[in-house]
Amino acid sequence: MVKFVLVLKSSPRENGNSNTLAERVEAGAKEAGAVVESLMLHHMNIRPCDACDVCLDTGVCIIQDDMQQIYPLIEKANVIVIAGPVYWFTISAQAKLCIDRWYALPDGKLRDKQIGIVLTYGDTDLYTSGGINAIHTFESMFRYVGAEITGMVYGSAWEIGDAEKQPELMQRAYQLGQKLGIDQTTPG
Ligand SMILES: Cc1cc2nc3c(=O)[nH]c(=O)nc-3n(C[C@H](O)[C@H](O)[C@H](O)COP(=O)(O)O)c2cc1C
């Protein structure tokens, strides 16, 4: 089975650090044989969940915006990679807007999907940066929906280009992509 990997990039910076690492994840996944589709959430029209709860009866979100093109990709994906910066000690608003709208996905739609996390932050470590809060949110969220976090890559990088200067971090991102992209159903 060829895996379909959906990469949701939540930085507004095209050449930002989390995008640079996400691109290494994509390269690793492609090398492992997966098909990859990547979206820049910042460029998309994604409105906040308005808690109308219509989706609880219908399984369909009534807000007509770019989430309508993302929902089928989420359903199709074997693997979802969420990449982005730490903003104000947690995940970025761009990521949160998209994730809140997953409320409309019927029960079980995210179950057993593999998840990859890519995070960058300006401070020196996971704790002072608040990256730990982002990770805690991801862990709670994916435990709740029954999806498996297969791997995470995170590191300190502030200016555009900082991630690229860290070969070991770049290599870890590539290896995460290989791990996510490989088809475990094929013997050998
Ligand atoms: C609005 C804003 C808030 C930020 N908040 C934090 C923060 O709480 N902790 C931190 O370590 N870095 C913070 N940063 C720095 C970014 O996390 C860091 O530059 C990151 O590498 C940006 O990712 P990107 O290059 O993919 O856009 C912030 C940056 C911005 C623009």
What does this structure look like?
- This protein has 188 residues and is an alpha/beta fold.
- It has a single domain (4-46, 73-94, 108-181), classed as Flavodoxin domain (Rossmann fold, 3-Layer(aba) Sandwich).
- It contains 7 helices and 6 strands, in the order βαβααββαβααβα.
- Strand 3 (79-87) and strand 4 form a beta hairpin.
- It is globular, with a radius of gyration of 16 Å.
- Bound molecules: flavin mononucleotide (FMN).
Could you give a quick summary of the protein structure above?
The chain has seven helices and six strands, in the order βαβααββαβααβα. It has helices at residues 17-31, 54-58, 67-76, 93-100, 126-129, 131-145, 167-181, and strands at 4-9, 35-40, 79-87, 90-91, 114-121, 148-156.
